[in-house]
Design goal:
The chain is an alpha/beta fold. The chain folds into two domains: 283 residues, TIM Barrel, CATH 3.20.20.100; 63 residues, no CATH class. 42% of the residues lie in helices and 14% in strands. The strands form two sheets. It has an eight-stranded parallel barrel with strand order 3-4-5-6-7-8-9-10, surrounded by five helices. Strand 5, helix 3 and strand 6 form a beta-alpha-beta unit. Helix 1 crosses helix 2. The relative contact order is 0.10.
Length: 374
C-alpha cells in the first residue's frame, strides 16, 4: 500500500468510503449486508488501508455503527476515522457528535468534516454554529484534525475557507471528467495555493467512469488494454501532487481487491496518459447529459417520492439512445416524473447543480409520448 505523510503520521493513499457498502436489499443506502461488509473492512485493514470515511447519514446511520463494530477489534492508533456533521439531518451538532462517538465506539474522531457544504446550504451551516463547536472539540482532543467536504462553486469554496483560519484538510469531488467539464481544476488550485491537503471523493464519479460509453472505453483500451476503466480514473487522481487520500466507495470485495492491488504498485501515469483521459472524457461527455452521482441528497425531501437518481439514469440513456430507451424501462419508485410538482427542493439540494425539475418535466413528456409503444 502506498502511504503519504500527513502532519506527523502516514495515511494510505486509498481510503475506504463507507457510503456504498454491500446491502441486503436494492436501493442506494439500504440495509447493510453485515457479514459482507465486515469481510471488506477487514480485508482493507489487513492490506494496509488505514483511512476509513463515513458520515452520520450513510446507510441511514448504519454505516458508522458497522465501522465501529469492525474496527474496534483493532488497536485504536492503527487506523484513522473520518466522519461528518450534516446540517440537513436536523440534529444539533452537539447531539450528533456524541452519538457518533458511541456509534464508532471511540473517544475521538481523527478527521472530522462539515459535510457537503454547497452554495445553497452555505447559510444554514454558517448559522448552525457548528464550526465553533467543532473547534472546541478539537481543542479538547475529541477531534484531531478538522476539515470540510465541499460541493461549492469556487467562490463559495473561498468563503467556506474563511470560516476557519486553521482548516487541516478539505475534501472535494475530483475526477478527470469534472476536471475538464466542471470546476474541479479551479477548486484544486485554490486549495493548492493554501497548501491544504485534499481528500478526494467521487474519483470514479459514482461508478460512471468505470462503466463508460463504448467510444470512451475504446480510447482507454487502445492506450493501455491491461488497465481497467476504474484504474484509469484512480490513477489520474493519484498523479495530482496535492491529493492526500483517494476515497473509493467500494461495494464488493472484488472491487476492493482490484483497488488495493493498484495502490500496491508504484504509480505509472504519464503526460500521454493525461491526454488519453481527456480524450475519454470528451467521448463520454457526448453520452452523459446530466452529471448525477446518485448521492440521493435530492430524494429525502421529494414530496412525490420520486427515485430521482434512477430516473436520471433513464434520462441519460434516453439522451444517448433516443425516446425508445424509456419504453419498457423498469424503475422502482413510488413517484414518477409525471408526479413532479416542480417545487425545486431537489435542485437546491443537488451538489451538481442539476435542474432536476426541468429534467423530470422533459422525461415525463417523453414517457407520455411513448407510453402506448410496446
Amino acid at each position: 500500500m502506498e502511504y503519504k505523510p500527513f502532519k506527523d503520521i502516514k495515511l494510505s493513499r486509498l481510503g475506504l468510503g463507507a457510503m456504498r457498502l454491500p446491502q441486503t436489499a436494492p436501493g442506494f443506502g439500504g440495509p447493510i449486508d453485515r457479514p459482507a461488509a465486515r469481510e471488506m473492512i477487514e480485508y482493507a485493514y489487513n492490506h494496509g488501508v488505514n483511512y476509513f470515511d463515513t458520515a452520520y447519514v450513510y446507510h441511514n446511520g448504519e454505516s458508522e455503527v458497522v465501522l465501529g463494530e469492525v474496527l474496534s477489534q483493532y488497536p485504536r492508533d492503527s487506523y484513522y476515522l473520518a466522519t461528518k456533521f450534516y446540517v440537513h439531518a436536523g440534529v444539533p451538532v452537539e447531539q450528533m457528535f456524541e452519538e457518533q462517538l458511541k456509534r464508532l465506539q471511540t473517544d475521538h474522531i481523527d478527521f472530522y468534516l462539515v459535510h457537503g457544504v454547497d452554495d445553497s446550504c452555505y447559510d444554514a451551516y454558517e448559522k448552525s454554529g457548528c464550526v465553533d463547536f467543532l473547534k472546541r472539540m478539537k481543542a479538547e482532543g475529541k477531534i484531531t484534525w478538522l476539515g470540510f467536504s465541499s460541493h461549492c462553486s469556487p467562490d463559495y469554496l473561498k468563503k467556506t475557507l474563511a470560516w476557519n483560519d486553521d482548516w487541516d484538510f478539505v475534501q472535494i469531488q475530483c475526477n478527470y471528467f469534472d476536471w475538464k467539464f466542471g470546476t474541479t481544476a479551479e477548486e484544486y488550485r485554490i486549495l493548492e495555493e493554501k497548501n491544504l491537503p485534499i481528500v478526494v471523493m467521487e474519483p470514479i464519479r459514482g461508478g460512471k467512469l468505470a462503466t463508460l460509453s463504448d467510444d470512451a472505453l475504446k480510447v482507454l483500451s487502445e492506450k493501455r488494454p491491461e488497465r481497467s476503466a476504474a484504474a484509469w480514473a484512480l490513477s489520474w487522481v493519484r498523479h495530482l501532487p496535492q491529493i492526500q487520500v483517494i476515497l473509493s466507495g467500494m461495494s464488493t470485495l472484488s472491487q476492493m481487491q482490484e483497488n488495493i492491488a493498484l495502490f500496491d504498485r508504484e504509480s505509472e501515469f504519464t503526460a500521454e496518459d493525461e491526454q488519453t483521459c481527456e480524450k475519454a472524457a470528451e467521448a463520454f461527455k457526448k453520452e452523459v447529459s446530466v452529471p448525477c452521482t446518485a448521492c440521493r441528497y435530492c430524494c429525502g425531501t421529494c414530496p412525490a417520492k420520486i427515485e430521482i437518481p434512477e430516473y436520471m439514469n433513464l434520462y441519460n440513456r434516453m439522451k444517448l439512445d433516443g425516446p425508445m430507451a424509456v419504453v419498457g424501462a423498469k424503475v422502482e419508485s413510488e413517484g414518477t416524473p409525471a408526479d413532479c410538482v416542480q417545487c425545486g427542493q431537489c435542485k437546491e439540494r443537488c451538489p451538481q447543480g442539476i435542474d432536476v425539475p426541468a429534467v423530470m418535466k422533459e422525461l415525463a413528456g417523453v414517457m407520455e409520448m411513448m407510453k402506448d409503444i410496446k
